[in-house]
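Illustration 12: DNA-damage-repair/toleration protein DRT100-like.
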Amino acid sequence: MTTFSYITFLSTLTIFILTSTVRSCPASDRAALLAFKAALHEPYLGIFNSWTGTDCCHNWYGVSCDLETKRIADINLRGESEDPIFQKAGRSGYMTGSISPSICKLERLSSLTISDWKGISGPIPACITSLPFLRIIDLIGNRISGEIPADIGRLERMTVLNIADNLVTGRIPRSLTNLSSLMHLDLRNNRISGPLPLDLGRLRMLSRALLSRNYITGTIPDSISKIYRLADLDLSMNKLSGQIPASLGKMAVLATLNLDSNKLSGKIPDSLFNSAIGNLNLSKNSFQGYLPNVFGPRSYFTVLDLSYNNFWGPIPKSLSQASFIGHLDLSHNRLCGRIPAGPPFDHLEASSFAYNACLCGKPLGACQ
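Figure caption equivalent — predicted structure in token form:
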């Protein structure tokens, strides 16, 4: 080989090595991923079999990198997926172990999805709040325990926080209301206790707030009505008390309001019956008094469930003026009198009116 050819060969080899280095992930990110993997045990699918070699930016299952920085940007591991690896195995995933704090070394991490593995336990690493680019935390469907990190409000870019169907305890951190970009909050089916933050209304970008099946106490903050994008609010199956703020019925896009199975009392605000809410479930509380006779053309309900309360008196005749009522449940109250004729009553079954004081008329027995 001539001197010129040798120099050309060395130059080409150097360029190749430099290009390969630029295209692959940093050694620090690779080490963090391998430490993360070491804390988990996945016995059936072999999803970590692809985590080999020096370049974790390419062909590592569930891992992707930022195109410019070549740093790890996304970890997306779902235990219920349509990926061929699941179809070939003919089963959903099962994984045990815990989430290693080593993920906090992935300084450019944007999304962390470790969902529906059923057996992952342990706490959410507190250091996760030090990741300034983190937008998505999705840990649904595991056995995560411990509390939500107290300073989670540091994650200014956070848009999705989903830790539903776990064993998370403690209170909702006060700092959570600092998440000004948060759009989806799902804390369902955990063991969260204590009151809702009074300034929950600071989450102005929030469109879904799902907090059912916990041990949340106290009252419903009036500030929620300031979340003008909120479409779905589910606070059912908690221990909330007091009255419903009338301001909830004045929210422009609130379409679903589930407050069933709490300890709410008093009268239901008239505003709820002439609002944008189309799915309203207030069953299994301690509401009482006459049902307000305020229904009209703006009343449109796919579901209106007022069962298992202490309402008395007649069924409001104005219900027949509602533009639509798909499912109505007034059972298990103390209502009395003749059931109005015509829509929506002509398509409802007897179970919608059962277990009241003295209701009569179709679909129940004839009035005496």
